[in-house]
Fold this protein.
Amino acid sequence: MNEVKSALEIAAVDDSKFVLLSVVGSVFCCGLDFDIIVKHLKYNRKRASVKLEDTIKNFVNFFIVFMKPVIVSVKGPAIGLGASILPLCDVVWANEKAWFQTPYTRFGQSPDGCSTITFPKIMGRAAANEMLINGWKMNAQEACDKGLVSQVFWSETFTQEVMVRIQITSCNSCVLENSKALVCYNMNVELKQANERECEVLKKIWASAQGMEYMLKYVQNKIDAF
C-alpha cells in the first residue's frame, strides 16, 4: 500500500495526464495479507492495530483525493481491498477471466475501501450485501452488469484493447482534472467519512482478542489446507 501510494504521489506532480493501474501476472490483487497482519498484532495488538488503521486509511484517502484520472486494468482475481478500491477509480476494464470478491466475514473482518458507501450506490443494497456479507464471487460480466466494471474484453486481446482505448492522452490535462473534480465534488466528503468509519471498526476488531482469534484460525486453516 505504501509503495502504491508513493507511486501515486509522484504521478500527482509529474507531467502525466492519467494513471494506468495494472499488474504483472495473472492476479490483480488478493487484498490484505492476513499472515502479515497477524504477525504484527501478536506482539502489541493495540499499537499495531493503530498503525494498520492509519496505513489503510491513508491509502484509501489518497485514491479519494487523487486529481488525475485513474484507469484500472484487471487481468485476474480482485479480492478484498483489491475489489473495494475499484469504485474510487475512474475507469475499470476487466479481462473476461477476472473475478471479484469481498469475503470479509470469512476472514473475521469488516468492509474497507469505502465499499459500505460505493457498493450500494453502484449495484444496489441487495447486491452489495451479497458481496460484503455473503462474499459473492462475481465474474467479470456480472461485475460489468452491476456497474463495478466499465467494460469486459477477451483474454487473448485484453492488453491491445486497453491500449487502444486509452484515448485521453490527447486531451488537455487541465480539462481532465477539472472534469474528474466535477464528477467527484459531491462524493469526496462522504467517502472520507466512510473510510474513517470503516477503519475505526477494523481497528477495534484487530485490537480485540476475539478478532485476533478469528484471524489466527483463518491463517491456520490456510496452512492446513496447503
